[in-house]
TrEMBL record, chains A, B:
Cofactors: FAD
One Gene Ontology cellular component: glycolate oxidase complex
Originating species: Halomonas campaniensis
NCBIfam families in alphabetical order: glcD, PRK11230.1
InterPro entries associated with the record: FAD-bd_oxidored_4_C, FAD-bd_PCMH, FAD-bd_PCMH-like_sf, FAD-bd_PCMH_sub1, FAD-bd_PCMH_sub2, FAD-linked_Oxase-like_C, FAD-linked_OxidoTrans_Type4, GlcD
EC number: 1.1.3.15
GO molecular function: (S)-2-hydroxy-acid oxidase activity; FAD binding
Keyword tags: FAD, Flavoprotein, Oxidoreductase
Lineage: Bacteria, Pseudomonadati, Pseudomonadota, Gammaproteobacteria, Oceanospirillales
Positions of the FAD-binding PCMH-type domain: 52-230
Name of the molecule in the record: Glycolate oxidase
UniProt enzyme class: oxidoreductase
Keyword Cytoplasm: no
Length: 501, 501
C-alpha cells in the first residue's frame, strides 16, 4: 500500500465504516455479491500497475443494470467513493481501489449482445474481453482494430475508460475513434445514451469526453464499437540502423512518403538484445536500432507500399532490410516485439515503463535526450515503442534493493516525461494518467486548464465520488506536489513500480 | 426577424443598452473595429440559414488575440452575451446574432501559420477558408479532407464549431477526426490548449467536446489540422435504379463488401430531374434513384474496388451502371450532385432542407417513410444526400405564399426528423443544431441528458453568455416547446426557411 499518497488531498474523503456501508448495501441489494473479508478483497488491491495498491473497503460484483444503478444511488447517498474496474490490466493504477471506497467490478457484464455485419458494429457489455469481440466478428470477415498488448485479457469497458491504444492504432485510431455509442449510468443512477448508431450525434460530444475519462464521469454499461474488414494481406519489413537517430528520422520519412503502416515499431539495441535472447526472433543484435514496419491491405497495394518503404528506409540509411518470407517469419518478427517488455525484465531486477508521446519529428532528438539522461543518472534505458504514433515506452532498468536506485529511476522517469512535454508532447499515449501520472498532470497543464477539467468532472459528478485521486489532480494535490518537488522530495510509492504491458 | 422566438427563455438576457456597451468596449479596446449603426449591422443579421435573423447589438472585428481576450472579459463583466461567427455559411442558424449580444467576427484571423509536411499538419487561424488550407498544402501533395459544399467560403473555425462534414467524410471522417489541437479563450479570457501535436492528450478529451460545441464553450483562436496525401486517382460510378429502396439497400451492401468509398451519394427522381435540367450532367431522368460512388486511392486498388462495387450494384438490382470515362465526365457527374440544392430550388418557390442521420440499414425504410409522409402532407420532397453516411438531406418543396403551406412544410420536416430519431438516428449530421433544431433537441434527448449537457456548458461558461439559445435548449425552452406542441402550435419562424448548402 502506497502510504506516501495522502488520499485526503483527492476528495471523496473517508467517513463511513465498512460495516455501516456493508449493512446499507446488503439491505438495498440483497441479491448482489459483496466481498468484504480481507482475504476476499486481496485479489483486487491493484490493477496491472502493481506498485500502487490499496485494499478496497468493499468489492461489489453486480450482475444486472438495476444493481449497478441502485449501488451508485446508495453510494451517492452515503458519500462513499466508487472506483470502477474492468479486467484490471491497466498500467497506470486507474483502477487502484480506495480504502474508503467501493470497488465496482463489471466482470459479470461479459455478453456480446449483437454483431451487425452490415452496419459493421458490435454491441457488447463492458466486461467483454477486447479479443473476444474480434473472435465473434471473425465469421463475418470483420475485427475490432484497437489491440492493446493485453488484448487477450483486457475488457472493452476498461479500454473505453483509458482510451486504450495498441500496435495498430497508427492506422486505425485509438479506442475513441472506434466507439460509436455507449450507455452510461451517472453517479445519480441516471441512464444516458452518448453517441448514436448514426454518423453523428447532436449536442456536445460527450461520447469522446467519456472515452478516456478513467471512470471519473460515470459507469459505462454498454458499448457499440465499429468493426473493420480483416485486411487481405499483411507484410512486415525489418530495417536495421547503426544509429538510433537515423531510425527515428526514418519513421517521419515513411509517413511523409504518404504511407500509413498498419504498425511501425522501433526497438533500440538494449531491447533488441533482450528480445533476441528471450525469443530468438532473428533480430540483428549488432544494430543500434530496428524498425518493424507492417503494411496491410489488398495484395497489389501492399506490394507497392513495400517497395516505397524499402526505398525510404534505404535513403534514411538502413544498413539492412529484411522482409518476412512467410506468415511464420512475420509472426516471429512480431513475437520479439510483443515480448520485449518481459524480455527486458529478465535483464534487470526491476524496470519502470514510461508512456510519453511526442510529435514524430522530435523522435531522434528525444531518443538522444533519453540516452543522455540515462547516462547522467547512471541507469540503463531500453526503448521499445510505437514509433509511428510517437508513443515512447522507455523502460528504465534498476534494482530496488540498491539504496536510492528506485528514487533515481523515478526521478529519471519524471525527467523523461518533462522532456516529452517540452517538445510539444504529452505524458501519456495509451496507458492513461491513473494514479501513476497524477503529479505530471500538474506539469502538463496550467492551473486554469486543470480548473476546467475539474469543472467538467463536477458537471457529471458534483460530489467527486467517482474515482477520486486519479486522472485529474485536485488543486491541493498540485500544491503539495509543487511543495515537495521544490523541496527535492517528490512523493513516491513505497514499492518499486513495475509494468508489463 | 424571428419574433415568435422568445429570447428570454435562453439565458444571457437583455439588460444593457447598446450605447452603454459600446462606450465600455470603445474605452477598453480603442484600436478595435466596432460596428454599431444599423446599416453596418445589417450584413451580419443571419448566417447561411437566412430564415433566422436578428440585428446584433454590436459587431466586433478584432485583429489580435489580446483584443479577443479583453472583449470576452468585458462582456463577462457586463453580462453581455457573445455570439462568435466565422464566414457565416452555417445552415442551422448557429451564428445568428442576438439583439442584446455582441457578434464576435473572426474574419480577420485569416493567416495560415504553418504547414508541416513531415508531421502532415497545418496550423491556421480560425478565419482561414477551408479550401485555402488544401491550396496551401497542395505543393506538398497534401490536402485537408473534410469538404463541406461551402468549402470555398466557409472558415475552419466555423467547421470546428459545427463539426462540419462533406462528401468525403464517410472515408475520411468529420472535422472532429481531422483536428488535433486547438487554442481557445474561455469567456473569462483564459487561454487553454486542447489536444496536442502528439497522438493523444491526457485528461478529458476537451478537444472533441469543443468540436461541434457551436460556440457555447469558448472561442477557438487557433487550429491544427491533419493533412492527408492526395489520392493517386479517383474514379466514379453512377448506378441507376428503378426503385429507391433497392438503391438504399445497395448502399449498405457496398459497405458490407468491405469497401469504404471516398464518396457515396444518392439522388431520387425529383432531384435527378432537377439537376439534369439545370446542369445537363448526363443523368438518367427516368431512374427512380441514382447512386454516385467515388473510389479513390492507388490505381490498382481503385480498379479492383470498381469491379467489386459493380458486382454489388448489379446484385442489388441496378438497371444501368456507368463509369465516368475521364476527369471531365467525373467532374460533370459531381457537378450535378453539387448543384442539386439550387437545382431543386428552381423547381419551387421555396424549399426547406433537413439534415437527419440514420443507421445505413434503415435507409430504404426511411426513404419509403419520407415518401409516405410527403404524400400525406401533399408536399413534394426531393432526396439528395450522403447515403454512405446515412446523412439524409430531404428537401421539402413548398410555396410560402400559399396560406398554411409553410406551416405544413415545417410540420413535415419535424415528422421526418422524428422518424430519423425513431429508427435510432439523430436530428443532424453535419449542419449542427444551432437555433433551427433547438426544439428537436427536446425530442432527441431526455431531460436528464439535457441537464448534463447544460452542466457541461456551465463548467466552461457559468453565466451562459456564449451563444445562448443555440444547440442546447434550456429547460424553459423545452417546457414551452412541449406546451405549444401539445397545443398543436409549434413555434415557427415568420419567414420561410431556406437553405443552400
Amino acid at each position: 500500500m502506497n502510504t506516501h499518497f495522502d488520499e485526503r488531498l483527492d476528495g471523496g474523503q473517508p467517513g463511513r465504516d465498512q460495516s455501516e456501508v456493508l449493512a446499507d448495501l446488503q439491505q438495498a441489494l440483497p441479491g448482489m455479491t459483496l466481498l468484504h473479508r480481507e482475504e476476499d478483497l486481496r485479489p483486487f488491491e491493484c490493477d496491472g500497475l502493481s506498485a500502487y495498491r490499496a485494499l478496497p473497503m468493499l468489492v461489489a460484483l453486480p450482475e444486472t443494470l438495476e444493481q449497478v444503478e441502485t449501488l451508485l444511488k446508495r453510494c451517492r447517498a452515503l458519500g462513499v467513493p466508487v472506483v470502477t474496474r474492468g479486467a484490471g490490466t491497466g498500467l497506470s493504477g486507474g483502477a487502484m481501489p480506495l480504502s474508503h471506497g467501493v470497488l465496482l467490478v463489471l466482470s459479470r457484464f461479459n455478453r456480446i449482445l449483437e454483431i451487425d455485419p452490415e452496419a459493421r458494429t458490435a454491441r457488447v457489455q463492458p466486461g467483454v474481453r477486447n479479443l473476444a469481440i474480434s473472435e465473434a466478428a471473425s465469421p463475418y470477415g470483420l475485427y475490432y482494430a484497437p489491440d492493446p498488448s493485453s488484448q487477450i485479457a483486457c475488457s472493452i469497458g476498461g479500454n473505453v475508460a483509458e482510451n486504450a491504444g495498441g500496435v495498430h492504432c497508427l492506422k486505425y485510431g485509438l479506442t475513441v475513434h472506434n466507439v460509436i455509442k455507449v450507455e452510461v449510468l451517472t453517479i445519480e443512477g441516471e441512464h444516458m445514451t452518448l453517441g448514436s448508431d448514426a454518423l453523428d450525434a447532436p449536442g456536445f460530444d460527450l461520447l469522446a469526453l467519456f472515452t478516456g475519462s478513467e471512470g471519473m464521469l460515470g459507469v459505462v454499461t454498454e458499448i457499440t464499437v465499429k468493426l473493420l474488414p480483416k485486411p487481405e494481406t499483411a507484410k512486415v519489413l525489418m530495417a536495421s540502423f547503426d544509429d538510433i537517430e537515423k531510425a527515428g528520422n526514418a519513421v517521419g520519412a515513411i509517413i511523409a512518403a504518404g504511407i500509413i503502416p498498419g504498425g511501425l515499431e522501433m526497438m533500440d539495441n538494449l531491447a533488441i538484445r533482450a528480445a533476441e535472447d528471450f525469443i530468438g526472433a532473428g533480430y540483428p543484435v549488432e544494430a543500434e536500432a530496428i524498425l518493424l514496419c507492417e503494411l496491410d491491405g489488398v495484395e497489389a497495394d501492399v506490394d507497392d507500399d513495400c517497395q516505397t518503404v524499402r526505398r525510404v528506409l534505404e535513403k534514411a540509411g538502413a544498413t539492412d532490410i529484411q522482409q518476412a518470407r512467410d506468415e511464420a517469419e512475420r509472426a516471429l518478427f512480431w513475437a520479439g516485439r510483443k515480448n520485449a517488455f518481459p524480455a527486458v525484465g529478465r535483464m534487470s531486477p526491476d524496470y519502470y515503463c514510461m508512456d510519453g508521446t511526442i510529435p514524430r519529428r522530435e523522435l531522434a532528438r528525444v531518443l538522444k535526450g533519453i540516452g543522455d539522461l540515462g547516462e547522467a543518472y547512471g541507469l540503463r534505458v531500453a526503448n521499445v515503442f510505437h514509433a509511428g504514433d510517437g508513443n515512447m515506452h522507455p523502460l528504465i532498468l534498476f534494482d530496488a534493493n540498491q539504496p536510492g536506485e528506485f528514487e533515481r529511476a523515478e526521478e529519471l522517469g519524471g525527467r523523461i516525461l518533462e522532456l516529452c512535454v517540452e517538445v510539444g508532447g504529452t505524458i501519456t499515449g495509451e496507458h492513461g494518467v491513473g494514479r501513476e501520472k497524477i503529479h505530471q498532470m500538474c506539469v502538463q497543464f496550467s492551473p486554469g486548464e486543470l480548473t476546467t477539467f475539474r469543472a467538467a468532472k463536477r458537471a457529471f459528478d458534483p460530489d467527486e465520488l467517482l474515482n477520486p485521486g486519479k486522472n485529474i489532480p485536485t488543486p491541493a494535490r498540485c500544491s503539495e506536489f509543487r511543495l515537495t518537488k521544490s523541496a527535492g522530495d517528490a512523493p513516491a510509492p513505497t514499492r518499486a513500480p513495475e509494468s508489463q504491458g
